[in-house]
């Protein structure tokens, strides 16, 4: 099932400088990372998916419904977006109220909304902070509040914009766990990222944006094997992939376990 279909999509802010040009993409069940340098059009693209911007030309279909036929409020039932900066998203004075706002706003009852909010806060590790003011918490915790706010809405599509920003090792591991759980539960997970190591470990598919166009789109291992094309988009391979190449291995490794297993097997056979 194609949860999202993007057809001949272009977008300009009206100054004749095209931000996105002629994009054709489909998103199904694969976890998908969107990577590229600042200015490549990534955030603009996900804002178009969410209905926060309107295409200059072309169409976006969510569950076979053209987004031009729906308001951003109605699209909120289908697709959730975690903003890059949590301060752009948080506006309530209590954590529980912040996380309940989304489900309440799309029609869930008070009881359902509270249940979903508590479940989401447990998932992000903030169940003990329900009565705190979000702005009394750290940046990484506020980021997790915005994640919980979107999870509580129970949408089938969840988009993360730079989720690892401000997160330490523990926070990143929590995000990996959340994304894998969402995928296991049949949700479509899309994320904009600059953290190539995180991309390599979590995402099945990677799309490279460059100057408003799709430079590469494929399974993550294949994308990270194309060193020269990555350089053309001013991107590096994941650290473990680089280490594998420096050791003289031809394979493209996406995590440390893969590299170690391969190195050990070569040692045994030698």
UniProtKB/TrEMBL annotation:
Name listed for the protein in its UniProt record: Cobalt ABC transporter ATP-binding protein
Sequence similarity: Belongs to the ABC transporter superfamily.
Main location as per UniProt: membrane
InterPro entries per UniProt: AAA+_ATPase, ABC_transporter-like_ATP-bd, ABC_transpr_CbiO/EcfA_su, ECF_ABC_transporter_ATP-bd, P-loop_NTPase
GO molecular function, one term: ATPase-coupled transmembrane transporter activity
Domain ABC transporter per the UniProt entry, residue ranges: 4-236
Origin superkingdom: Bacteria
Source species: Heyndrickxia camelliae
Annotated membrane topology: Peripheral membrane protein
Cellular component, GO annotation: ATP-binding cassette (ABC) transporter complex
Alphabetically ordered keywords of this record: ATP-binding, Cell membrane, Membrane, Nucleotide-binding, Translocase, Transport
Location relative to the cell: Cell membrane
